[in-house]
Predict the 3D structure of the following.
Amino acid sequence: MNKYLFTLLIFLIFDQSFAQKTNDFNVLIIHVDDLGWADIEPLGSDFYETPNINRLASEGVLFTNSYAAAAICSPTRAAMLTGKYPARLGITDWIRAKFQGITTSGLPGEYEKFEEKPLKTPKIQGFLPLEEVTIAERMKSYGYATMHVGKWHLGEEGFYPTDQGFDVNIGGNDLGQPPSYFDPYLPAKPREFYEITTLRPRKKGEFLTDREGDEVVNFIRQKKDEKFFIHWAPYAVHTPIMGKPELVEKYKKKEPGDQRNPVYAALVESVDQNVGKVMEALDQMGLRENTLVVFTSDNGGLIGNYESPITNNYPLKSQKGYPYEGGIRIPTIVSWPGTIPEGKVNNTPIITMDWIPTVLDFLGEDSELDELDGVSLKGLLTEGSGLPARDLFWYFPHYRLSDIVPYAIVRSGDYKLIHYFDGSPGELYDLNLDLQESVNVIGTRKAIADQLQLKIENWLKETGARLPVEK
């Protein structure tokens, strides 16, 4: 071999090795259940203590206009895994578990009927179809070891995480909430199918969030010499509201603010403690600067009522399930020391579907981005460059509780339009001037409202959304 060929060979080997190394990073998505926008100190909590989440924010980018794909859990989880709008998937409400004895699997043309309501509403797709390509399946194709820990809530047996690209599943099944947060994680009164079948009891009385944190750390230790993708979806802070006794006592002694439930505060701090545990493990194993960490939530916080408050989403209006900011705006932090600048606050509107395009872009793969509903945030994260203007949409074509009627939402710039399918008056807010959504300006800005209404109608057609219809 002559000198030229030898030099070229060495260059090619080095070049391939370098290319592989630049893409050789880990991904940890922490997808908390029901964590409200104001439930962490960096976004204004005046009662809960979140020192580890505070540190994570100081080591990355805190988003103030981050949105869940839905105001309810299962649709957002499906959007996280597929990068697609819930309307496109037909998963527009929470999926009922087997123990609840309710069939929710619906096909186009199947409807729910309510005697006292004017509309028939579409039944939801009761599981995440296996035909959908999940983020876990994508990561496996790039050589990643994959793990799911915690809440799944996307179907019964046959549609579990291990059927959707995850090598390991600890705790994920059809349940949307744990029967108990204390090992052996069983309900007070036995009930058929109401147990976390994919999580074996380990130590009686152990707190579920602590167990989840341990499982994440153990997987990282096992795979520290490989590339790994972890989707950690804590069951916390969903009901039943429970906390470790020592933490509950701590908050009982603390002066309350807008938020005042000591048990919920303990539950939030348990999440924070385990975020700290996992971050410390990454540091100890020298993996922190090689791991992209996304901390986010699946919908807004659950308020409860005045006599029995759970949390307070102030200054946002309303709560989980509702079309207001308290139902859809969520805390989000992205951290990757050495790659993403630290201590930044970003006001750009982002949404759940953006995470798959972002990860793929960091992998150097942009050929698959067109099939997804989100956009890559790589430039926004690494360079602070702005995103092209876009509209964000939400869709909930169902009746729930006594005051939730089928709705669709668009946020376009600073304007947000809520359209109700039953003929109720629409609502238009200027979020730049009215974050609390206290002044409905639809009567004075009709041209804007008409323009946004047309955007909703076109988007519903483009996604093939299943629409409510008159009886």
